[in-house]
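Appendix B, example 12.
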Amino acid sequence: MKKAFVLNLIFLITINLVIKTLYLFGVDRGVQNLAGTAGYGLYFELFNFTFLFQILNDLGIQYYNNRHISQHPYLLGKYFPHLLGAKVVLAGGFLLAVLGFGAMAGYPWLLAPIAGIQILVSFISYLRSNISGLGWYFTDSILSVLDRLILVLGLGIPLWAGWLDGKSPVPVFIFSQLASLSITATVAFLLLKKKAAVIRLRWNPYLNLVVLKNSYPYALTVILMTIYTRLDAVMIGRMLPNGQEEAGWYAGAYRLLDAANMIGVLFAG
């Protein structure tokens, strides 16, 4: 098991370094160059704004579930339908909060599909927590880059070929992310359905309460780190007279921070 863990960790880091580097400096950078500093700055501000409510989207379930399933893999069939139902309810609350506060802040309609991106990311993280908890490390490694690989092929090639020149790339970028994440979520769900025979959503208030009671330390860690790493872009966009342009410049540098944090985040995950 230790040998398999180490080998798959090396595989995980290697494919992420290759695929996500192509994504960061090819797709993401290409979209920013095409959209302009202010256009991309608005996207970056909206994206970070949705991050501030991400705690409502998960409440630490992902991290608790990863640890719990790895200790008790036979409980997957019992927990999965109930926690998936809880995730659906939490996603609804997250969406309402984002859209409500976003409307008060005067943000445009792009906030809604970006919130959808966060919901899909949270669902994929939960599905992957079951997969990695079962010890399917190779499968989890593939899923960790599948959405980015789809974006590199589906959006990177048009960007490099110049097919999007003269068009507004930010909406295309957002909906391309929605499509790639939807495909990844479907693949992860079908894998669990096939191997663990889990299909129906269920709702058990007592079980969900017990899980949330045990997951709150993880939730607290997530919200503190999210505020620490994501609030700055929102503050730049809201406080400065040319906030969107400044947020765009900040986003360009933040991409380098994302790349530098990649190995640590992957290893910890």
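The chain has a mean pLDDT of 84. The CA atoms of residues 147 and 181 lie 5 Å apart.
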